[in-house]
């Protein structure tokens, strides 16, 4: 039996019919007549030497051969579609699709995007704020900004920001909590978005590193870092926060970080794109702008005693 593939149009007709389990609906999807679609499937069956569908009164069902062929055909056309979209996207220098976490998008990117738009009016930015690890080809993403330890095999990865985790509060609270010890009486805000860090960089670790025997209790817990930051800037309590998200607030005096001890972790923000795509004009422009903006604000680590949580385990 020959392994020569049948015509692509016949496989496409079969794929559509197998998904819809209806020749009429498959024909409508492919914009052909039901008779033309039926002819393509018949030719495929002749090529194979056995039927792929059982024709019933008002329906069709797959034969054993049809059930064997359907998954691979569907996967093949999906991969072809993905590859075609990715190739077409490479030719388009006008649109840049970026995904980043909700907190980074809200607190870092959004306040600055008008500057990028002014400098690059020829580029249309499209953002997806999500913690889901999106697929570059399937989701048509050009750039991902991700936080964590990084398993970026096959991707171009650039470390973006040096940061630390430290207590921050509204300046109005400073007199009430002038020392690390005084924080044992403070309303503590918990940012649970970094609860995945191992070893942890949390309030318990910070107190222990300061040599303070205290079991911290949350005044409030937040699943998103930007919500915890909002509560802190409103004077709602003291938050243990990453300087990468709070640098602008610290520089503007909306928050203060008065204590000298700060925690560091191996987790970090990375700028990611497909390997080789970093030279595409819109990706290179966005990367260079991003790194220039990062350099405009202090990273918040100056003058702090930095303790790597990995050294505490």
Walk me through this protein's architecture.
- The model has no long low-confidence stretch (mean pLDDT 91).
- The protein has 3 domains: 8-90, Winged helix-like DNA-binding domain superfamily/Winged helix DNA-binding domain (Arc Repressor Mutant, subunit A), CATH 1.10.10.10; 95-162 and 268-294, Periplasmic binding protein-like II (D-Maltodextrin-Binding Protein, domain 2, 3-Layer(aba) Sandwich), CATH 3.40.190; 165-264 and 300-311, D-Maltodextrin-Binding Protein, domain 2 (3-Layer(aba) Sandwich).
- A 5-stranded mixed β-sheet has the order 4-3-5-12-6.
- Helix 5 (102-109) runs parallel beside helix 9.
- It is α/β, with parallel strands linked by helices and 313 residues long.
- 31% of the residues are buried.
- The N and C termini lie far apart (63 Å).
- It has helices at 8-20, 23-30, 34-48, 64-90, 102-109, 113-119, 203-210, 225-233, 243-251, 281-294; strands at 53-55, 60-62, 95-100, 124-129, 143-148, 155-159, 165-168, 188-191, 218-222, 238-242, 261-264, 268-274, 305-308.
- A hairpin with a 4-residue loop joins strand 1 (53-55) and strand 2.
Summary keywords:
313 residues, alpha/beta, Arc Repressor Mutant, subunit A, D-Maltodextrin-Binding Protein, domain 2, 5-stranded mixed β-sheet, 4-stranded mixed β-sheet
Short description:
The protein is α/β, with parallel strands linked by helices.
What's the arrangement of secondary structure elements?
Blueprint (H helix, E strand, L loop, with lengths): L7 H13 L2 H8 L3 H15 L4 E3 L4 E3 L1 H27 L4 E6 L1 H8 L3 H7 L4 E6 L13 E6 L6 E5 L5 E4 L19 E4 L11 H8 L7 E5 L2 H9 L4 E5 H9 L9 E4 L3 E7 L6 H14 L10 E4 L5
Parallel strand pairs: 3-4, 3-5, 8-9, 8-10, 11-13
Antiparallel strand pairs: 1-2, 5-12, 6-12, 7-10
Helix pairs in contact: 1-2, 1-3, 1-4, 2-3, 5-9
């Amino acid at each position: 039996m020959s392994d020569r593939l049948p015509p692509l149009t016949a496989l496409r007709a079969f794929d559509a019919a197998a998904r819809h389990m209806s020749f009429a609906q498959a024909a409508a999807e492919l914009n052909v007549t039901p008779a033309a679609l039926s002819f393509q499937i018949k030719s495929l069956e002749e090529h194979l030497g056995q039927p792929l569908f059982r024709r019933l009164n008002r329906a069709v069902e797959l034969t054993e051969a049809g059930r064997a062929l359907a998954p691979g055909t569907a996967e093949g056309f999906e991969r072809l579609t993905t590859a075609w979209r990715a190739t077409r996207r490479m030719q388009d220098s006008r649109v840049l699709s970026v995904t980043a976490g909700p907190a980074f998008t809200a607190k870092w990117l959004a306040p600055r995007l008008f500057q990028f738009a002014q400098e690059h009016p020829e580029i249309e930015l499209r953002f997806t704020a999500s913690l889901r690890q999106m697929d570059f080809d399937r989701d048509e993403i050009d750039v991902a900004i991700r936080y964590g330890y990084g398993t970026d095999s096959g991707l171009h990865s650039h470390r973006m920001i040096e940061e630390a985790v430290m207590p921050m509060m509204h300046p109005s609270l400073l007199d009430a909590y002038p020392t690390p010890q005084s924080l044992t009486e403070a309303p503590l805000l918990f940012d649970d978005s970094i609860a995945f860090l191992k070893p942890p960089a949390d309030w318990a670790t910070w107190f222990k590193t300061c040599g303070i025997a205290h079991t911290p209790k949350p005044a409030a817990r937040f699943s998103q870092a930007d919500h915890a930051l909002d509560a802190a800037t409103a004077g709602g309590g003291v938050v243990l926060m990453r300087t990468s998200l709070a640098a602008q607030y610290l520089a503007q005096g909306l928050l203060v970080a008065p204590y000298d001890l700060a925690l560091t972790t191996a987790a970090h923000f990375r700028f990611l794109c497909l390997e080789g795509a970093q030279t595409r004009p819109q990706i290179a422009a966005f990367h260079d702008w991003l790194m220039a903006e990062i350099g405009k604000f202090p990273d918040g680590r100056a003058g702090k005693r930095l303790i790597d949580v990995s050294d505490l385990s």
